[in-house]
Amino acid sequence: MPNVERGAIRAGAGIAAPARWRLLGATTLVATTLVAALVLGASIALGSGGAVAPSPADSEDVSYGVEIYLGSYCGACHSLTSAGTTGAFGPTHDDARSRAEERLSDPNYRGRATTIAEYLRESIVEPAIYVVPGYAATPHAMPAYTNFSERELAALIDLLMQP
Ligand code: HEC
Fold first, then answer.
1. Mean predicted lDDT score pLDDT of the chain
2. How does pLDDT run across 8-33, given as a tens digit for each residue?
């Protein structure tokens, strides 16, 4: 699975930027719809017995996080060893915890987050609130991901918080 995604990203790298973005948008939409359908199917299956879905074990949550991370093409711009991605348009996500701590203690930090998890969440859904130093003029700015479900966001944050 990670190999397939890496291949897809490399294949996309040769396409001119605007075409690549259209491609990215379409693929993200398809992936998101697919995930939504799967989640819906799972909750219907669980709902029939009236049982509450058990909260997934940490490792399951992390592998779900990798799935969302790859499916949302985070790895086109970010490197994260545990997801097998090598994108370099944005800061690396290896060691994201200590990077988040650094950002929070930056005197220029203007966001609302006070914890590492809050910072990661804010960076995903409202990235313009604080742009990491050195990236203000990049043509590959971090897009605001406003359509993630709570579960998807939580899985992404858990993944990034892995030591
Ligand atoms: C088009 C390239 C691009 C994509 C795709 C992208 N990012 Fe980013 N990301 C960036 C850039 C550039 C920055 C640094 C500038 C900023 O702070 O907005 C950044 C910053 C971040 C930060 C803050 C990192 C730090 O060191 O403080 C997080 C967290 C993050 N991205 C998560 C994600 C996640 C999760 C995804 C996928 C859902 C994703 N990004 C997709 C380009 C991207």
1. 79
2. 444 444 445 555 555 555 555 444 44
How many CB atoms within 10 Å of residue 86? Answer: 15
| Orientation of helix 58-71 relative to helix 17-47, angle to 10° | 150
User: Would you say the CB of residue 23 lies under 6 angstroms from ligand 1?
Assistant: no
Q: Is the CB of 120 under 6 A from ligand 1?
A: yes
Structure tokens at 134: 């050195």
Calculate how far, in angstroms, residue 77's C-alpha sits from the geometric centre of ligand 1: 7
In CATH, what number is assigned to the domain containing residue 129? 1.10.760.10
Per-residue pLDDT tens over the stretch 101-138: 999 999 999 999 999 999 999 999 999 999 999 999 99
| Residue numbers of the domain that contains 58 | 2-161
What atom in ligand 1 is closest to the CA of residue 141? 12
